[in-house]
Each structure stands twice: as structure tokens, then as C-alpha cells.
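Before the break, one more example. Copy the sequence into your notebook; we will annotate it together after we see the structure.
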Amino acid sequence: MLKKCLALALATLMIVSFAACGSYGSTPASSAAPAAPASSSAMQESSVPATDAPDFSSFDEVKIKFAHWFGETHPQHIAIQKFQQLCAEKSGGKIVVEIYGNGQLGPEDTYIDSIKQGTVEMGATGTLMARDVPGIAIAEMPFLFSSWEHAKGTLGGEIGMKITESMPEACGMRTLAWTVNGFREVSSNKSVASLEDFKGLRLRVPNTPVYIKMFEALGVNPIAMPLTEVFTALEQKVADGQDNPYATVRASSFYEVQSYMLETRHMFSPIEWVINEKFYQGLPEEFRQIVDESIREAADENWKLSQEADDTDKQWLIDQGMEVTVPDNAMRQQLIDAQVTAGVYEWFYQEYPGSEELEKEIRAWKG
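Here is what the structure looks like once it is written out:
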């Protein structure tokens, strides 16, 4: 009987000991400090204990209005939503990003002026900023970039930083990241399969001189207008076609009023995410760091999504009935030769001082 009692006592002691080992190193739930708000996926992936999360409860809420002109399914809008989410998560909800897409705050030049004035904090812009910083124009020199890797390695690297370093002083804004719209193609309501087919084509282009010059060299009649007006212009036959990446053709529903696409890849269309410099410098240092980190992550997402969309959106448009023509090397060379013959590159060098040196640097990039 005594042996049985001793055995029972020993078994009980072992069970208690194992239970204690199972909870070794854990903190009772009741003593854990509350974590800052975060998405469930972020909480699952984070290896930092909740008690180490920064406490921004004493900070004032900061609102950032972010304007752009892209549709809701475009990689730009999706990446900007990621920026919105990251800012909220990293700041405990104290940085509130309000997204105004689809040109809700007006065309690009209108909301860029608002950012300069400080009534809007952030926005997406293309080479429109070349009017303030001429070097930015190099990003849309015709037939400059050979691949996605080439574009990201130059614009997303030291060359891109050098191009925009004078922006705060020049126009009161700062480029936080070079992102992307994509390689531009030509859509039309009639087949364009040769250089001759361009002649007389009424093509909508952005209101940027290099676009007008480039297409005039091909015999096109360029029509400059904001993107928000393009669908109606195509639908009402005011324009025969337009030029944009596959992602924009899909997101803006141009496939509903256009039947053909020519994969010209005549320009690489970058997008800068800019912020009012005074607003940026006025943020608490901790919030500036959060904005910078979130921008980098969101920009990487944009490049990834945009490159994927180049293939998936092309196939999707074909599935909707669009006819896509890919020029052979001979036709592509004809498109380039037309720019040289018309003096587009020489005009570019004169219009944007320093662009010839930047062009050489970009073309020489090897990764």
C-alpha cells in the first residue's frame, strides 16, 4: 500500500513538472501590453513581440491626401493602397492615408499644383515634373529602356535619385520613390501594322512635348488631353487611338472602344510618388521613417505587379477580343529611325539640358 501511494505521488509530481516546462518563457496573457492595430497577416508574420511595438498613443493623428488618376484595378492604385495599409499598421492608426484615384482631385497638373501649395500632401505624377526639374524628362525619351530590369535598375537606383535630388528646392516637393506605369503601346480603332498605317492617325497623347514630337515624327496627328477624358474621346471618335501600357488599357476600359493594339514599347512610362516638402519635414521623425519605409515596400510591390500585369493584362485584353500585333525587328528599327530623321533626339538634348549625358549613363547600365 505504501509503495502504491509513493508511486502515485511521484507520478503527480512529474505531471506538474512537465506542465511547468510547457509554459517556460511565456508571459501570462493578462500581463501582456496591448499591441498597436495591425492586419492579421502582419501580426502572423511579425517576429517582434507586441510589447516591443512603438507606442504612438501620444502622437497627433496625421492625414495624408494621396491623389492619382489611375483606375481601381491598376497596379498603381493597388500599390498605393498597400502604402495606406502599411502606414496605418506601423503607426498604430495614427497616419491616415486618404486615396483619391481616378482623377477625383482633377487632372495631374491640377493636383500637382495643389501639392505644391500644400492643400494636397501626396500624389502620383509622370514626367510632367520636367517643367521644374528638366532631368526628369529623360525617363520618357523614346526607345531608351530595353527591359523592366533596365528601367528599375536605373530609375530605381542611384541615377533616379540623382535626377530628382533638386526637386525640394526647385518646386517644394520631394520624390519619395520612382514607380511605374509600364511600357507604352498603341491602341486604335483600326489596324496599325506598319509605319505607313500611322500617317494621319488621330492619337491621344499626354500633354507633354516629347510625346507630341515623337508621334509627329511617325506622321500622326497628336491630340493632347488628360487621361480622364480619353474614354469619351475614343467612344465619340474624336480620337482614333491612344498610347498606354496594357494595364491602363484594361483598368480604363479602353478595350470597350478599341479593337487593335500594336506592341510598340516606344516609351517606358515611370511614375513618381511625390510629397509636399514642407509637410514632409514637419512630420515627427518617427512618422517620416514610417512613411519612407512604407513607400519603399509599396513601390517594390508596384514594380512587381506592373511587370506581372504586362503579360497577364495583355492576355486578358486578347481574351476580350482585342487584336495585338507585335512588330518585328525591322519595323521597330523603322520607328526608331523615324525619330532620328525628324531630329527628335537633337530637340530633346536642347530642350532638356544635361539629358544627353543622362542618356549615355542609362544606356550604359549593365546591372
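The first helix runs from residue 2 to 22. Residues 185-268+316-363 form a domain with the D-Maltodextrin-Binding Protein; domain 2 fold (CATH 3.40.190.170). Try to locate both features in your own notes.
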